[in-house]
């Protein structure tokens, strides 16, 4: 199992393609620049299976429909943010974007709770990690030893909680209960910035002192 980080859009939001030896792939958080993302997919000769979203803030969903339609694939999101794709007021683009607000069609599948999920060749765990947003989730691939943490946990930082639906105490609890319990060598693939590890953040993240 391999992954590639692709920063997209003005906020350099990390999109990821997770792929295996068969060249099948999952696309995580296609936030912008569908042509750039498509170019990477074609360069790696990948076959997309689905789009999975850690959450539905505008900088994570801008290319959803273009990529969904190009490859004929389904979109997955947590049920608590099922309306955010279609509503610029909920996904934040109505308030933050200078140009046209961002929206996409409704998701094809909803995460109703935590647990194991299989899509094509891929088998992984879905963790509910709210706090940055109500429906934030993380995707853990135990055999490959990485977790896609969205905007919950960053290198040396955590997600902002001052947006509608954000909750600082809830985010800290999510990180402590769902992420810091993973093996310390687990790679953390965040929604912004460089990859890190659980151990590194336990040791040096100033927002997690006391854990």
Question: Overview of this structure, please?
Answer:
It is a single chain. The chain is an alpha/beta fold. It has one domain (2-208): 4-Layer Sandwich (Metallo-beta-lactamase, Chain A), CATH 3.60.15.10. It has helices at residues 34-43, 64-71, 88-91, 93-96, 168-179, 198-204, and strands at 2-8, 13-19, 24-28, 47-52, 74-78, 109-111, 115-119, 122-128, 137-141, 146-150, 153-154, 157-158, 187-190, 196-197. The strands form 3 sheets. A 6-stranded mixed β-sheet has the order 1-2-3-4-5-6, with helices on one face. The longest helix is centred in the C-terminal third of the chain and has 12 residues, at 168-179. The relative contact order is 0.14. The model has no long low-confidence stretch (mean pLDDT 95).
């Amino acid at each position: 199992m391999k992954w590639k980080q692709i920063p997209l859009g003005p906020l350099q939001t990390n999109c990821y393609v997770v792929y295996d030896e068969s060249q099948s792939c999952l696309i995580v958080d296609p936030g912008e620049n569908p042509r750039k993302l498509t170019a990477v997919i074609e360069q790696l000769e990948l076959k997309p299976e689905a789009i999975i979203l850690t959450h539905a803030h505008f900088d994570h969903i801008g290319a959803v429909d273009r990529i969904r339609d190009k490859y004929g694939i389904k979109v997955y999101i947590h049920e608590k943010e099922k309306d955010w794709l279609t509503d610029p007021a909920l996904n934040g683009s109505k308030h933050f974007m200078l140009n046209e607000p961002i929206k996409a069609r409704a998701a094809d599948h909803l995460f109703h709770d935590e647990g194991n999920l299989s899509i094509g060749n891929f088998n992984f765990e879905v963790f509910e990690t709210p706090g940055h947003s109500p429906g934030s989730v993380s995707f853990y691939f135990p055999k490959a030893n990485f977790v896609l943490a969205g905007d919950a946990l960053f290198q040396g930082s955590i997600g902002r909680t001052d947006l509608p639906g954000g909750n600082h105490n809830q985010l800290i609890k999510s990180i402590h209960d769902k992420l810091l319990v993973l093996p310390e060598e687990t790679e953390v693939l965040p929604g912004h910035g460089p990859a890190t590890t659980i151990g590194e953040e336990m040791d040096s993240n100033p927002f997690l002192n006391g854990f």
